[in-house]
Write a structure and sequence with these properties.
Blueprint: H1 2-15, E1 22-26, E2 38-44, E3 62-68, E4 71-77, H2 88-101, E5 105-114, E6 124-132, H3 160-172, E7 177-184, H4 193-202, E8 206-208, H5 212-220, E9 224-233, H6 245-269
Parallel strand pairs: 1-4, 1-5, 5-9, 6-7, 7-8
Antiparallel strand pairs: 2-3, 3-4, 5-8, 6-9
Helix pairs in contact: 1-2, 2-5, 3-6
This protein binds hypoxanthine.
Length: 270
């Protein structure tokens, strides 16, 4: 694995010599956030050795290097999901590469279904913990000790100081934010009514198909992680319970200005 990472890093560094401090993963419908970055270099995933190629609508598939809030950042416009057929190791490969490009902090975003009955479509939820129902842990396989321990601690997967900063930023701008537990499932099916109820019983506030594997490997490598969901549907309360990908993208687009404000100010405050 280390050799593949080194080859990807070497290729990227042959095109871009800056050292990003923060990595950002843009979730479904949140790709426009990239316009906030003063871009210095964009590299399509397809050009980077060993990078998988993104296939989902609403994910454009490139690394964007540039400046945001006075910091060097690298953003992933488009991420890799287990449901696309990639192995779990492929899904998290870009996170490993960003770490070896120099990032210390990782900001993750996603579109998620609201499980908590108080949530509304368009709400933002700061993730303060997660439950993985995605079942396959991305660290399964031989452990490379230079990257992290065999049995990583996960008592603070999302850093409390970053959560506190984000809440302060939101309050100062009068943006309502929820805070809760994200449950990761494989997808690609949205949840059945019974599954929504199970997730509620488990203690989940939102459900989605990403983020947790990325959070796990970032913790494995000692990165500070912050993550936020845009609640794009509230299937648990919908009589018909019909959710479409278009509905998810539309709701994410509406929440984007507030999401953008918080992420931008958080990068500046790190
Ligand atoms: N379930 C799972 N993933 C999702 C959902 C959902 O309701 N909405 C957006 N991503």
């Amino acid at each position: 694995m280390m050799q593949k990472i080194n080859e990807a890093v070497a290729y990227i560094q042959s095109l871009y010599q800056g050292t990003p401090a923060v990595g950002i993963v843009l979730g479904s419908g949140l790709g426009n956030f990239a316009a906030e970055i003063k871009a210095e270099k964009e590299i399509p995933y397809g050009d980077i050795p060993h990078f998988p190629v993104s296939t989902v609508e609403g994910h454009s598939g490139k690394l964007i290097f540039g400046e945001l809030g006075g910091k060097k950042v690298v953003a992933m416009a488009g991420r890799f999901h287990f449901y696309e057929g990639y192995t779990m190791h492929e899904c998290v490969f870009p996170i490993r590469v960003m770490k070896f490009l120099g990032i210390k902090t990782l900001l993750l975003s996603n579109a998620a279904g609201g499980v908590n009955r108080k949530y509304k479509v368009g709400d933002l939820m700061i993730i303060n913990d997660h439950i993985s129902q995605l079942t396959v842990n991305p660290l399964i396989g031989p452990n490379d000790k230079t990257m992290g321990p065999r049995f990583p601690d996960m008592t603070e997967p999302y850093k409390k100081h970053l959560i506190a900063k984000a809440k302060t930023i939101a309050a100062a701008a009068n943006i309502k934010v929820q805070e809760g537990v994200y449950v990761a499932v494989t997808g690609p099916t949205f949840e059945t009514k019974a599954e929504y109820l199970m997730i509620e019983t488990l203690g989940g506030d939102a459900v989605g198909m990403s983020t947790v594997p990325e959070c796990i490997v970032a913790n494995h490598m000692g990165l500070d992680v912050f993550a936020m969901s845009v609640i794009t549907d509230v299937g648990i309360r919908e009589e018909e319970n019909v959710i479409t990908h278009e509905e998810v993208l539309e709701a994410a687009k509406h929440a984007e200005p507030n999401f953008t404000h918080i992420f931008k100010e958080l990068v500046a405050a790190i």
